[in-house]
Structures are given as structure tokens and as C-alpha cells.
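Title: [Solved] Magnesium transporter 3D structure

Original question kept below for reference.
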Amino acid sequence: MPFLGTTLNTVGLLFLTHAVYSAHEHTATFTHAALPLDVTFELLVSIAMLSAGIVLSSPDLKPIQWSQWAAKIERGGRHGEGKWTREGEELLSEGDPYAFLGLDKGIGGKGEGRRGFWDVRGKRKEYAEWAREGAK
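Solution (posted by the thread starter after getting help):
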């Protein structure tokens, strides 16, 4: 299939180049005339050929296995790189592409959630506890 896809891409690209050149020449020659049907048809056929060629020459898709990926991340846990940010937070790595969001520390968790975001519910709770204690 890769050979057929490459062939379709090559022929489609040639047709597309010719259609674009024909459209340019037509608009340069005739200022207020619509594009001829043969140029429009050639353009549509070239786009269809390119689309089919791209699909046929692309590699097979791999199945998504989120449960295995998530289990691997949970078992491994986060570990530090030994580098620190200006705010004093340690950079964590492990292969989790969403680790920088800090979503595990959000609602119901520990900490303030994502860096740079203020936990309004947590601050209200802290203020309520402070007010109950008599503002000591």
C-alpha cells in the first residue's frame, strides 16, 4: 500500500500544481470571468487523490490502552529530577505528559493544584477556620 499511496500523492500533486497554474493564468487573462469547469474539476480530483494517497501511505494506527498507561504511571509514581523552579518547586518527571498540570493536587487532594492557579475553595476554608478560631 505505501507504493500506491506514494503514487497517488505524486500524481495528485502534479494535478494540483497544474490546476493552480491554470487558475492563475485564467484569472490573469480574464479579470471578471469564473473559473472554467475543467480547472475546478481538476482541482477537486487532485485534492481527492492527495487525500487518498495520504491515508494509504500513513502507518497503521496503534490501539490506545489508557488503562495500562495510567496503571504504569500510578505504580511508578513521580520522582524528582534534582532541578528546582524559581518558586522553589521541584521539577518532576516520569513520562506523564500531564505532570506539569499538577492535577493530582486539585480538589480533594493536597496542595494548591496547578501551579499559577489559586485554590479559591481552599482559601475560603482556611479563612473560615481562621475566623472560627477568633482571628488569632
